[in-house]
């Protein structure tokens, strides 16, 4: 099952500049594990010490916030598009 | 005045208002904006009566302040705690080298510059740090609040205030080549806490680690200013109801729906305004700097006297608004109410110690 994860430019230096990454996983923890295997340094920016998605990171699946889709319980479908949006502070 | 468009004028075929006499009470300077159908004479009059607060006057704040001042927004209240530095001039378009040389407070420098290109509007510069104790006073009597700040602590404070008082505000931020903006219409759209329940905790990129392109921050500010115009003229059906992110370097653009409040949101759902209550408020480490701020507000400083006291300990100079004191590897910038920005450390204990040694405890 292929899921496309879109990395925002603010986090691309942790993915060697790659914008879209094909990942696999049945659910969000599985997907983030796979992403972390491919690009280990991004993990600490997406998940806290206990593995939970950091609260200032938003993950959207096909334009819907994963929190409204069941969060960790959401079961991915082939072709799902995942978008990561971090909160940023500069101004 | 009357503007008459010929049939072969490209504007004629785009549905812009033609053959409309310019009302006598609309200044000539706004004539091209009034011709734009979305504004018109009625919209221009609404802008003239509007009062807008701009919280933070760095790159975003400079750009929105300049655009709205030129657009004829009647009153701009510009709130900023910082002073102009040379490293600001790359992107903060209201300031020049003389402002940096004099270390002018940004709010004051912004007011001077705006007066030079539009003396017909009112600018209220407020050299202040927006904190729970003064947020009610500084944001009172405004129709709209615009985000020009560089930190989430202030943004969550603004969000709490805006939601509590049903005041519209616009979040805008940029880092690197990337910018994000969100219109918050309390009760109608998602608020900042719906989208980002918690603020970053030092793990994401800042202006310090990723730098900032002036075009990225000015793009986001331009979008913010446009949304502000829509709100102020009452074009509510045109107001964007998404979290918009853009990247000018990688040519990316994404929009996420934000048209409804999130159920159970701490701020707009439960109305638990923890930031207004000032809970857990730490000292701020400023974006792009190795600095700590001491939030003193009730320690009036006599700059002449303090300058004399500090002379033996380092380099010191001051003007009416700010005193700067250099003592390697630190630099202390003091404001008349006792507030200080201590550069050269991120350790609040070191900052407190320096403050206590050179200013008072």
Number of helices of chain A: 2
Could you give a short account of the major beta sheet of chain A? Answer: 5 strands, mixed
Helical fraction of chain B equals: 25-40%
- Which second-level CATH architecture of the largest domain in chain B applies? 3-Layer(aba) Sandwich
- Average of pLDDT of chain B: 87
- In order across it, which strands form the biggest sheet of chain A? 2-1-5-3-4
Could you tell me the radius of gyration of chain A in angstroms? 12 Å
Order of helices and strands of chain A: EEHHEEE
Helical segment count of chain B: 12
Shape of chain A: globular
Number of domains of chain B: 2
Main interface: chain pair and counts: A-B, 28 and 47 residues
β-strand number of chain A: 5
Tell me the strand percentage band of chain B: 15-25%
User: Order of strands side by side in the largest beta sheet of chain B?
Assistant: 3-2-1-4-5-6-7-8
Topology:
The complex is a heterodimer of chains A (91) and B (361).
Chain A: E1 3-6, E2 20-23, H1 28-38, H2 43-46, E3 57-61, E4 64-65, E5 81-86
Chain B: H1 31-35, H2 40-49, E1 51-55, H3 59-71, E2 75-80, H4 97-101, H5 106-117, E3 122-127, H6 135-139, E4 144-147, H7 152-164, E5 168-175, E6 178-184, H8 192-195, H9 207-210, H10 214-233, E7 242-247, E8 252-257, E9 291-294, H11 303-310, E10 315-318, E11 323-327, E12 330-334, E13 340-343, H12 348-358
Parallel strand pairs in B: 1-2, 1-4, 2-3, 4-5
Antiparallel strand pairs in B: 5-6, 6-7, 7-8, 9-13, 10-11, 11-12, 12-13
Helix pairs in contact in B: 3-10
